[in-house]
Amino acid sequence: LREMVTKFAPRMKVTVQPPYYNTPDFIAALVASAADFLKQDYDHLLFSYHGIPERHLRKSDPTGCHCLKVENCCEVASPAHAKCYRAQCFATTREFVKLAGIPKEKYSISFQSRLGKDPWLKPYTDYELVRLAQEGKKKMLVICPAFVSDCLETIEEIGMRGKETFLKAGGESFTMVPCLNEHPKWIEALEKMVN
Asked: What is d(CA 110, CA 50) in angstroms, rounded to the nearest whole number?
C-alpha cells in the first residue's frame, strides 16, 4: 500500500489502523448489534470466524516456535499473539462473552470458508453445525465477528448453507446474527478510529 501511495499519490498521508479485535469500542458494538438476538431463547451461540490455512499462522509467527507448535498455543502467553489471527479470534470471543454475560457452556468457536487441500484452522464451521445439532443443540445462534459487513460468506455460506446443514442434522431453529453493517455503535467506533 505504502509503495503504491508513494508512486501514485506521494503527498497523500496514509495511516494504517492497528488491529482492533479486542478494543472496547469494537466489542461493545458487537455486543450491541447482537443484543436483541441474545434475548431470544437459544441453546448455543457459535462464533464462526473466517478460516485461514494453518501454514499462514506458522508463517506469521514472529517467534517461529509458538503458533500451532505449542499445545494450547493461544492460551500460553507469547509475543506471537500480536500477529496471530487465531489468538485474536479467541480474544474477541473472550471479550464478547464477558461483556454479554454468556456462560462457557453456551458458546463455542469455529472457522469457515476453507479452500484447497491444505489444513485450515479448526474446528470447521460446517462440521460443528452437524456436531452441535447431533448433541442436542436445537436452537442455534451464529455470529461472524471477523466480518464487519454482511457478504456472500455470511449471508450465503452461513445464513443459507449453514442453516440447511444444521436443520438437516437435527436442529430446529437457526438464526444468523447480522454483521455490524451500519449499526450506530459500530459507526461511532469507526469515527473514533478515524479521528
From this structure: 9
* 55-109 pLDDT, tens digit each: 999 999 999 999 999 889 999 999 999 999 999 999 999 999 999 999 999 999 9
- 48 neighbors 144 (Cβ within 8 angstroms): yes
Instruction: Dump pLDDT digits (tens) for 3-27.
Output: 888 899 999 888 888 999 999 999 9
Beta bridge partners of 45: 107, 141
Burial label, 133 (beta-carbon count in 10 A; 0-12, 13-18, 19+) = buried
C-alpha 22/C-alpha 186 separation (Å) is 14
Say which residues have a Cβ less than 8 Å from residue 47's Cβ, sequence separation at least 6. 89, 92, 93, 96, 107, 108, 109, 110, 143, 144, 145
- For residues 164 and 168, give the distance between their C-alpha atoms in angstroms, rounded to a whole number: 6
Asked whether the CA dihedral 177, 183, 186, 190 is positive or negative, the reply is positive
Q: Name 74's Cβ contacts closer than 8 Å, sequence gap at least 6.
A: 81, 84, 86, 87, 90
For residue 172, how many other CB atoms are within 10 A of its CB? 12
